[in-house]
Amino acid sequence: MDFQSLTMLYAGKKDEELLQLAEESHQLTFEAQSALRGEMGKRSLEKVGAPIVAAPPAVSIVQKTEVQKTEAPNAPPIVLPVGEFIGEVFRIYHEHLWLFVRLTLPAVLIGMIAILTARHEARGIARYVSRDLSNVNTVLFEVWIVNTAGFLVSWTAFCVAFAAICVAVREFRTGSDISARGVFGAVMTKLGPVLRVSVLLFTIFYVGALATEFILFVVLASFVSKVLNAVPFGIFGSTFVLMMAIALIISRVALAIPAVVLDDFKVGQAFFRSDELTEKKWAILAVLLIKSVLGGYIAGMLPFWLDGWIPAGVHLPSWFSWVLTGASVLAVTYVEPIMFIGFALLYEKANSISLDAPHESATHAASSG
Hints:
Blueprint: H1 3-11, H2 15-23, H3 30-42, H4 61-71, H5 82-95, H6 97-131, H7 136-174, H8 180-188, H9 191-219, H10 221-227, H11 234-250, H12 256-263, H13 267-277, H14 282-307, H15 320-335, H16 337-368
Helix pairs in contact: 1-3, 2-3, 3-8, 4-16, 5-16, 6-7, 6-15, 7-8, 7-9, 7-12, 7-16, 9-11, 9-12, 12-13, 14-15, 14-16
């Protein structure tokens, strides 16, 4: 049964029936739990009924995290073999390729439309500069606002896709049957926290990007032009390296998305939890990030690069540019899920090991005693 059908089913039940289902929620699928939680929230039943949990344990993940901090404050960071982990990411992706494509395609389309629309509007605004130079600062500010809005819409769309992929990865690991519609339905129940995390991540990244531009083109402008100008793509390469470094640092808190959508962490707690789970995971984060950034860039540009090999004398129809754009969208859709799957799987594995560690330590201490 899909998410919408479950929502309608629970809407027709009495309060007592919903409370009874809540007590047995660990037997329900993720979609059913999300629909039930939404209906109980509408009726304010969670205050009098037992909270819905995703598994039988009596304590929540947030409580377990606090126990871990108390019992093992100096516990070593969780170690995951990089090669084995990346191999599992690709295995999950290829086993459920079509579902991940369906979860990612809307974000790619929305992102492309948002950025192209922003650029079109920015060009329209910039035309006024040539006519009247008296308000150039205002025009440039408006162009910046439009471009930023386009990137924010694209970023948010990909964060929602990331949240959906997190739900899918958890369901795969529990052996549940899922659908793209059900996954997005589950994400909609947590849309508010997901959007707040998305905006915070965007703000952090955007401030970092502005700092990078300031460092390269203001503070070190003369140095860069003298030392790197002789090297092909020297300035571009320096910018790319710095941007990748910033993105790698920000990826330490990217697991805040699965924290809020899977385990009901509050936004602030989710960022701290992400930082804990990614401690000393630089190699995994770097591989996933480079794979996504370089792979996504190459995939998006490849159709247009191939177009450059077509002889100039060959007549192409007017709609051929749309074919190139469509091929670019499909190529990016094929490449992008890998990073999101990797982040989701990293959260699941690190979170599971982290929560089990205190109990294993206590068991070992008891047996030793």
